[in-house]
Amino acid sequence: MAHAYTPGLKVTDSITLRKSRLLPVKGEVVVELKTQVKPDDVVARTFLPGNVYPLNAANILNIEAEDVPGSMLKKETEYIKKNEVIAETKGLFGLFKSKLTATIDGTIESISGVTGQVLQRANPMPIEVQAYIQGQVVDIIEGQGVVVETCGAFVQGIFGIGGETFGRLQMGVRSPSEMLGPDQIYDRHRGAILVGGSLVTEQALNKAIATGVRGIVVGGFDDKDLRAFLGHDLGVAITGSEQIGLTLVVTEGFGRIEMAQRTFELLKSCAGLQVSINGATQIRAGVIRPEVIIPKDKMPSSSNKAAGEIERGLSIGTPIRMIRQPYFGRLGKVVALPTNPAVLESGTRARVLEVEFTDGQRALIPRANVELIEG
User: Fold this and answer.
1) Is there a single domain that holds both residue 218 and residue 111?
2) Structural domain containing residue 173
3) Sign of CA dihedral 47, 48, 52, 53
4) Distance between CA 74 and CA 64 in Å, rounded?
5) Which of 101, 256, 347, 354 is 20 to 30 Å apart from 47, CA to CA?
C-alpha cells in the first residue's frame, strides 16, 4: 500500500503532554520537583530592568555640565520618587535657585559631568510565569523555569488569536453545525471556555468579551469578521499576542464550516472540566498550532501516548483536512495515493492523492495541500 508522511492536527482523548514554562531572562524557580500545579500557579519569577529616562540637567539648571555632579542632592544608585527634587543650584545669595525634579519612581542610574545628563532608571518590572496547564512539575531548569506534564485530551486548531488562558469548558451550541451567536452567550458563561459549532460572529465575540468569557473554540470564522473584530488585517507573522480580551481557537478554517463531529463529541464529553487554550498560530517555518488541553485524572493506560511519538503516515482511509484553496477547510478521507506525479492545472508536476469529501465528492489534491487529522 502507498504510504507517505504529511503534517497534521492532533485530535485525541488520550495523550501525555509536556510544556516548558521559561522566563525571558534568568530568575528564580518557585516550585519544587513533583509539585502538583494548577494553571494559575506561578512557577518562576524574575525582574526586568526598568526603562531609562534621561534628564538634561545642565540645561534645566542653566549651569555648565561640569557643575552638574556638585549640584546633585541624590547620588548614583539612590532611590528617587516622581516630582522629588534631586538637584539644586546655589543661586545668588541663596535666592533664585534652579531645581531639577525626578520624572519617575526609580533610581539614579548615572550622573555625567561631561554631557550634563542625569539618567533615571525606572523600578524593575516583575515578570511571572504561570504553569498554564494543570499537571505535575517533572523537570526544573535552574534559573529559567520548569517543565509541566499533564495527561488528558488534546485538540489542535487550524488558526487562532489571543494568548494562553484557562477556564471551565462549556457548550454554547447543541450540534457542530450550529452557529454561535450573541443570543447564546449568557452571564453563566463568565470565566468559561465556550464551544461553538460551525461559526462565531463578530457580534458574538464582542458579547463574549463583555460577558467575561475567556475563550471560544469553534469550527469556522469569517475573515471579514476577523478584520472588523481586530480593526486591521492580520499579517503572516505569529498570532497570540493580541490583547483582545479572549482567546479564539478555530478548528476547521475560514467561513462557516461545521466542526468535525469527532472534535465536537470529544469537547462535549469534557464539558465541565478545567481546560487550557492558546490561540498562538504560525503557519510558516517553525509551525505553531492553536491548542486546547483538557487534563484528566484518569486515562486508559492502553491508549495513552506521548506527544512527539512516531506520527501516523498518510495512507488509504486517513482522515484529512484541506489547507489550501479551492477546498480550504473541507474534511475528507484518502481513497487513493497515486505513485506517479500528476500534472496540475498550473502546469507543474506534483505528487497527489485522491480524496473523498464528507459529501461524497471526490477530487485529486496535491499532497502539500492537506494535513492529517491525528488521533
Assistant:
1) no
2) 8-45+130-295
3) negative
4) 18
5) 101
